[in-house]
């Protein structure tokens, strides 16, 4: 039985799909340990795998970013990022560029020591690492340990060619069209990050693994055996070409069985259904739930323009401020059981995060996508091109536009949704785990 260590950063949106994959690997015949910050031990228990405490980032998000305990500087960066999303797409992406060194490559030497210690304690045959955990990938490279890469976002988070820059969307949805001058500024900032990260990777490698091969371009450093994309294989996606590497498009990270949240939520849905014929979930992710101004706009727009629609709103720390809207057609909660709800609502409004996008696909739930940052613009583009969702710009959105978009979405199912939902459901965590095991078995040296 192969021993596998699955390493996740301390972010709910990353740890959740990685823990599901860990459970699938265990069901496929592996001895699996999920390594993450202590608050995420519950995910290992739910997945039926072992747990090892490991913190690989100063940042954290246990489900609602603003309420997660973290350092002063990390909290300051979060507020600066949220403020930038009010200014539009390029402003948000530029802020993320400025934060990247502190967010993604803090304490690489300490992480290397922690990964070495984990290897000594667990002696796994190989690791699975989140692609955005750059210090962990660098540590595994320096230590010469076999690993597979799990890409939690859009496949272009792993640059497919020299012209591709991490932090610059490979394509944009129709509603978001930055000016050429702004895009040029973004590319300059992203190129600066690319060069700075690559030099820092090289310096760490020279100091700690002088005999190992040079890590090369930092953002492109990934497993040479297997890369898992938690995403559908759309035919227009750029090709990743690397000799000997298996690229697995797993489609989604939804577990085979979703534990119900209990009778309270059944009661909530019953109450809302008795007041309206249709039900819409509004959830902007664990970070962007802090944009309570957008949540309020959406609630007002739907109440005004969709008289037969009720809404469930995931409002994070903004829930008390939105409590005035609670009533027969509105339920506001700090957090919601999103995957469970998706099989029970008629549509969802989300931010274009990878989990929300693929979970909507797996459940065949129509969506209105409002991309704010990161890879959300690329995901919104793909959703629009595949005719899976409606996409609008949250920076310019009005109540009337939001209400009309939801009304139209409920009037007719997006054309491509049935086909792509069926395609995605044929894959998933178990499909991925079995093929990942095959790929890694062929590269794991015998003890």
UniProtKB/TrEMBL annotation:
Family matches, as InterPro entries: Glycosyltransferase_28, UDP_glucos_trans
Taxonomy of the source species: Bacteria, Bacillati, Actinomycetota, Actinomycetes, Kitasatosporales
Cited SUPFAM superfamilies: UDP-Glycosyltransferase/glycogen phosphorylase (SSF53756)
Family annotation (CDD domains): GT1_Gtf-like
Entry keywords, A to Z: Transferase
Organism: Streptomyces hydrogenans
Name under which the protein is recorded: Glycosyltransferase
